[in-house]
Amino acid sequence: MQVTDARTPAPPTTNVAAAYLTIANSGGEPDSLLGASTALAATVEMHESSTTDGMVQMRPVPVIDIPPGGSVTLEPGGLHLMLMGLAGELKEGDEYTLTLEFEVAGTIQVQVQVVSPTEVVGG
Amino acid sequence: MNRPAAMVSLLSGLVVFATACSPVSSTAGLAGDLPLGEDGWYGLAVARPLAMPDLVLTDTTGETYDVRRETAGRPTLLFFGYASCPDICPVHLAVLAQAMEQAGVGTNEIEVVFVSADPARDTPESMGSYLAAFDPGFVGLSGDIELVTAAMRALELPEPTYTEPDEDGYYTVGHPSTIIAFDREGMTHRLYPFGTRRAQWVHDLPLLIEGGDR
User: How would you class B136 by CB atoms within 10 Å of its CB: exposed for 0-12, middle for 13-18, buried for 19 or more?
Assistant: First the structure.
């Protein structure tokens, strides 16, 4: 399981923040992301934004499946992790550790970069 | 120029395609491939201009703000969202704020108005600190949700929706993902879907100030 490009756009308040990343399943069997946690937030939820008729809705997703040999990208306007109850301010240039829990691969820790919100939509 | 199918679905319920009746859904949230139109704009043209809704709410200083009166004679960017939104709102607002800074365009030239679709949680005070993180010149409005909903209806936008609160009381709000540009005459002019990039804003902001083609 390879996790790359883990980023959080610097949030405007300490209320909530999003995390985006790409998960590639190099193994031979299907795997699923079951959840995530970080010392920085009280809870981390998995959500999906979807746009219908120009309206964006967000709903929680119980698991994120990653097919063998495939990858899933968590990105703005789509699947994302939502950090709730932040312990402190997150500023551009900060970095934090996020723990991802997979059904098969177990626990994986990744470093998440806090970036300018402009970066997550490609400049 | 043909717009990609995903773009059309992003906007099918909005003013551009106000007559669209078959709902189309897409999870493709980004509009990074928003092409430069043949008309020289990145922002999408509106087929049928609509007037700035008659909306009077409370701004972040606690003062009454009459949207029509305050924005009269100035191009205006209007966005319905909520401050507890982690994914769409802060990115959309931050990209716009950075583009305005880069283009040297101030809120004295283009008014930016963020209207809360979640006044139960967004107070004038909390919206003030929220918007100050982007640009202290951004106007944040909150107030009676019935008034906000009526304004959205006047712009032919679907009404906001709310999920059931979780055990911590957190809920999410369904809201338009598009920033609506109005011209000096207070008519809808261009649409900027979520995912509009900084460079695309930088290109279009001077056009919005000039007025230009509808």
Answer: exposed
Contact assessment for residue B188 and residue B202, using Cβ atoms and an 8 Å cutoff: no
Beta strand A41-52 pairing with A55-60: antiparallel
Q: pLDDT 10s per residue in chain A (123 long)?
A: 999 999 999 998 878 999 999 999 998 999 999 999 999 999 999 999 988 877 888 889 999 999 999 999 999 989 999 999 899 999 999 999 999 999 999 999 999 999 998 888 876
Q: Using CB atoms and an 8 Å cut-off, which of residues 35-94 of chain A contact chain B?
A: 43, 47-60, 75-78, 80, 82-85
Using DSSP, state whether B179 is helix, strand or coil.
Answer: strand
Round to whole Å and give the CA distance between B125 and A31: 44
- Residue B77 carries which side chain, given as an amino acid letter? L
| DSSP per position, B14-76 | SGGGTT--S--EE-----TT-PPPTTS-SSEEPSS--BPP--EEE-TTS-EEEHHHHHTTS-E
Task: Please report residues of A whose CB lies closer than 8 A to that of B130.
Answer: 12-13
Of B26, B133, B161, the CB nearest to A13: B133
CB distance A116–B195 less than 8 Å?
Answer: no
Work out the average pLDDT over B109-135.
94
A77 and B87 within 8 Å at the Cβ level: the answer is yes
First-residue to last-residue Cα distance in chain B: 16
Per the confidence metrics, is the pTM higher than 0.95? no
Among candidates B84, B175, B197 on the partner chain, residue whose Cβ is nearest the Cβ of A15: B84
